[in-house]
Design goal:
- There is one protein chain.
- It contains ten helices and two strands; from the N terminus they run αααββααααααα.
- With 210 residues, the protein is mainly alpha-helical.
- A hairpin with a 6-residue loop joins strand 1 and strand 2.
- This is PACRL protein.
- It holds the Pfam family ParcG.
Length: 210
């Protein structure tokens, strides 16, 4: 009995050392081994099941620790916790990845992409960092605005206004790619007011040309 007790202790010490990681390094992805019973689970072989669909690019990057922020559950409000200060994070490719993540419909990706995009645009020097990425950001926003899911569209609209506030007239040349999707939703009563306000802001930030 004593010898078995001695064997157990060092194991737990090893486990503890594995879990402690530095705040700025991505966590090591420890994949749980599939249980034999999973093979018999009909969910895993259902061609239309959620399990058979490959994860989206955003979900895969998030799982690998490629997005340096995590969702922190609060009693009233959720917030993001950055592993490094957002100012030190390279916009390329993170801002584009977050913009692509706006199309997500699952938690926590919905919150991380929306809040991460917003917070990254709030850092000092965001204008200079975001402008060169516009050719890649606009298609990602267009895809969110074309999405059938109302929440995805709403996130895309908010992100577009946030981007416009940061890059100003630089967005004008790209607006033609986005206005079709906005005009389609103008017919929808629940979005009419929100889109009208968004268009006014785009005009304000874009100047006379817009």
């Amino acid at each position: 009995k004593m010898s078995s007790g001695i064997q157990i202790k060092p194991k737990t010490a090893v486990q503890k050392s594995k879990t402690s990681t530095s705040p700025c390094s991505p966590e090591p992805a420890i994949k749980p081994q599939p249980k034999p019973s999973d093979k018999l689970n009909p969910k895993t072989i259902d061609p239309f099941g959620a399990h058979s669909r490959p994860p989206s690019a955003f979900a895969a990057i998030y799982a690998k620790g490629g997005i340096p922020c995590r969702l922190v559950h609060g009693s009233v409000k959720h917030r993001l916790q950055w592993e490094c200060v957002p100012e030190s994070v390279p916009f390329d490719p993170l801002l584009v990845t977050l913009a692509e993540g706006l199309r997500e419909t699952k938690h926590p990706y919905t919150f991380v992409s929306k809040e991460g995009f917003k917070e990254l645009l709030m850092v000092e020097g965001a204008t200079e960092k975001a402008i060169p990425l516009l050719p890649r950001l606009v298609p990602a926003l267009k895809a969110a605005l074309a999405h059938s899911d109302d929440e995805v569209f709403g996130r895309g609209l908010d992100a577009l206004v946030q981007l416009s506030a940061v890059v100003g007239p630089s967005l004008n040349d790209h607006l033609k790619h986005l206005l079709t999707n906005l005009s389609r939703r103008l017919m929808d009563k629940k979005f009419k007011e929100k889109i009208t306000v968004a268009l006014q802001k785009l005009e304000q930030y874009g100047g006379k040309v817009s």
